[in-house]
Design a protein that fits this description.
single chain; mainly beta; nine-stranded antiparallel beta sheet; 9 strands; about 0% helix; about 65% strand
Amino acid sequence: GLGLDATMRFTERTLVDVTVDSQRRTFANRIDVPTANQLNGRLDSLRTRLAHELVPGQTISADYAMRRNRAGQTFYNSDSHEVRVTYAVSYASPIAGGSPWTTSVYAGALRRTYGGPDPAVSATIKRTDSESRLGINHFVPITPVWSLLFGLEEARNSANFTNFNYKNTTLSATVIRSF
């Protein structure tokens, strides 16, 4: 793959990040996925983020992502557009001498359309997905190199085929080692 990442700071408190990348993806057939090579192709994406510090320790950001996936079968091709808004607040650690903690909440929506009908599902109707996400993350530095990240997210998908609808709730705890 190949990509380009650029950041432009408009003011001391406002910046824009833009990332463009393209990946050539190859999948090997396996005994449990004998047609995996039909997923071979390109994934092109554009991601932008506008972030603004409201006051020291409080940031709001808006993200947009466009992805274009092309594969060996048209029903694996997809185009998606995603938007997300995040509010983050950093505050003093309740542990004496600790680094600031950060809590962020976010909401996002994604729309994905597929390139052609999947004959195993419908000979004439192309799949579309409308996904929404709500979440909260909490970042806790423990030492200069070790941190904890806790997350709670609910994701819902409403597709034009009911077997692709879902409602997932995810709770996660992650240990991070920075190098």
